[in-house]
Records
---
Amino acid sequence: MNVFQKILASHEVSCEGDELAVFPDQVLTQDATGTVVFLQVEAMGIKKAKPDVVSYIDHNTLQVDFRNHDDHRYLQSMAAKLGIKLSRTGNGICHQVHLENFVKPGGILLGSDSHTPTAGGAGMLGMGAGGLDVAVAIAGEPYYIAKPQVLGVELTGCLKPWVTAKDIILYLLKKLTVKGGVGKVIEYFGEGVKTLSVYERATICNMGAEMGATSSLFPSDENTFAYLKSLRREQDWAELKADADAAYDERITIDLTTLEPLIAFPHSPDHVKTVTEAEGTPLGQIAIGSCTNSSYKDMAIVAAILKDKTIAENISLVITPGSRRILSMMSQTGVLQDLVEAGARILEVTCGPCNGIGQAPASGTNSLRTYNRNYRGRSGTADAQVFLASPETAAVSALYGRITDPRKFGECPKVDLPERFAESSNMILSPRGGAGEGEIWKGPNIKPVPLGSPLPPHMDFSAALKVKDHVSTDDILPGGAKMLALRSNIPDSVPYVFSRLDAQFKDKIDRLPEVWALIAGENFGQGSSREHAVMVPMSIGMKLVIAKSFARIYRQNLINYGVVPLTFADFDDYEKISPHDEFHIGEFPQQIQSNRVRIYDKTQDFFFDTRCDFSRRQIELLLQGGLMNYVKHKI
Ligand code: F3S
């Protein structure tokens, strides 16, 4: 067996068709997704969390107005109520703090954040999921994943000086692209694994998310033991390695000796070239940190490069250590002083600029970051060009003021890794008396989430909007900082729904019938997996979407919220329907179960057929009005 198979074999996992139903040992949430997760937990009437849950406050800590801090107070009160842990504002980025404090080799972690696979650096199967899936897992229900293939990546040889873990994952991104990991668990094995510390393995697993991988995994070995021991957690170590004759669905071999420093060009993490090819590109900003590269090792190597030097005058160098424990160790070992003396600006231990919260680059300038994503506009500046590279390349470039091959620096400094970190758990609040403690605290920006309604026996409805092909979730509900502040306020998000598709839609909202349908072309709901693009229209009566085809995740989100996705059996019928026609569906539940729904267009007096292809579980969810109702009735 490979490591992935061994982890599944040691857990309660059942196979339902092409899906695996998995019960995670641990769950993590972060504040940007967490408020909605806990509002859903509340709506389902869950009184106590089943798995071990840690709620992190790490994304939006800038507190520019009351709404942000209101969210934090709500999360803290919910943690006490549910009997779960809370990592307080200022304690660090969820994936780094979780790695330090909770990750266990051989376990399963589910998180409402796409970089949850960082845990694979210490041999734990980490998977990122949508907020509702996570809320349901907190209730003790399984998490369903499409059965993944296992891609075995054999590492041979060892990295040359100045070549890093970041270069390994950038190499894979270049080779496999941002779609290359979809439906796969990427498992690393071979002699080269021994040459990498957990810090480095975590960087690699973190950015497996950029390939769309379900998860990434390293074995748990003596390096994992040394890492856990340095954190006073040796009791959590267990050996975990693939059998000598383990099989993989696919295999790739990387000879680490042949790699060189790499860099991702704007605006995609797989737009990778050698640093030599980018050399000389002028920079305005360099940002070091994020859940990808904010470990003590990353901070120490940057400090060793900058020691007794000053950054170039055209550079703003911002650094976010991954956790308070890392920051504390940096202050003990002198790493912090070396960075400050060189001109670095030390920010709070938080996601910050990675999420476009603060430190937006100047208009039209280049920013070099050690982060994992460089999509257009993510930095907060629409016309900024963001490059991604290792901390080593970033530090050397900070001295020259332009992208520079780190090998120019001369000999690569050696850094000492701490054998023992100080105890640091006082910023993680543990439930004192178990679940049920205190009142739930809610500021005015926090509103309940909408619940779907069960499928009626017959349905009369009208179309509220007809749209063309390739409508994205951004078209349905825009993203951006303004909308981020409304994540826990569905009613106030309503005026923005469909605003890009129909500028007048907000004027019609008050006149919409109780239930209505949306008529769409091909690939409806493409783009980001944002669940609000379903929740918000559902809250004002969207009960059906009849489309030529759907983006996969959007279709599943519709079902999760009790909105029925139907596809035209004959695309010509899409043309025949007018935007405000009225319809009737008879014996709706029976028709859904036969996977074919016949609809009568009352306005134009004709019938048309639609297909659904639902699994048994999906039919059950739709009949009950979505996943929250399903769980609510079950518990
Ligand atoms: Fe935070 Fe950026 Fe990671 S937003 S969790 S540091 S991808």
Note: The chain has 23 helices and 27 strands.
---
Amino acid sequence: MRSLIDITDFSVDELWDLLHTACDISENPDKYAQKCSGKKLATLFFEPSTRTRLSFEAAMLELGGNVIGFSEASSSSAAKGESIADTAKIISCYADIMAMRHPKEGAPYVASLNATVPVINAGDGGHCHPTQTLADLLTIYRENGRLDNLTIGCCGDLKYGRTVHSLLAAMSRYSGIKVLLISPKELRLPGYIKHDVLEKYNMEYLETESLEDAIGSLDILYMTRIQQERFDSRDEYERLKDSYVLTTEKMRSAKDTMRVLHPLPRVNEISVKVDDDPRAAYFRQALNGKYMRMALILKLLENKEPSKKTNDEILVDENLLCDNPRCITSVEQELEHKFKVTDAAKGLCRCIYCETKKVFQI
Ligand code: CP
């Protein structure tokens, strides 16, 4: 049984398979209309969503399956204190596959450790959002005709924008990718992603605060919303919320072949006037998300292989605790704090749930 927690759970070949299946679904929907007959998808959304939840539900219905679930934590037994582990065990009794969104980082991973059916991470806090990346990959492939040799500008909230984190992890596996990280200094990409993704895979990258300076060189401009709900300080959000607004005037400096992507929802970071520009691909991207989620559901339901085991050295020490307030361990007291050793010589490790870096005594 396979789950999708992080985009790198799938190999490049598996991603190609998903892309090709999604294209075939969009061209031949009738062929797939009964593929999931008799199967149930559970959508467990502990955080608001329009696209992800409803595209998952549309995906399962268009495959001939059924959908159960909830769209807010308050209408589930999480409101009475039920743990993620127990929730996953219970849902495994009722559904063949589940998609979970949760504000705490690592929650879908905890679910996958306890479920007996595939679990899909539909977004966990500021950590990652692999099914958005599937939508992004299909959009890039269809709009730009390739997944390699691209200059990608990621603009906005790169600190909390989980879609950017997953997209960069995916793009690290293709050649000739250059990345421009366009953000205010307070919202720069987390160091662990620069280190573990961009630097590890020798991706060329540059950090800048100027969208105007960057836009002319881009093949893809990936705009993001400033993630109000992740800020500790309201004042800080108010100060940064209008950092970038893409306008028709700024689009004049972009290449004719550049495409604008946005995971949506947008607040005001793209002027509605840009929607009429044929280079604005974000509504097509949302449709692509449904096709990729259909392909993903098929793959996970058909795949009987166990999840791939890693050889990571795991560290458990009662004195070593994850201190990320957004980690699932911050609210689930029974959960054992575990760390993956990343550099034994330097005493570095990362929380297995949220990837926060820790130093341990050698
Ligand atoms: N892109 C995305 O995750 O949108 P929703 O929050 O509406 O699901």
Note: The chain has three domains: 7-129+287-302, 130-286, 314-359.
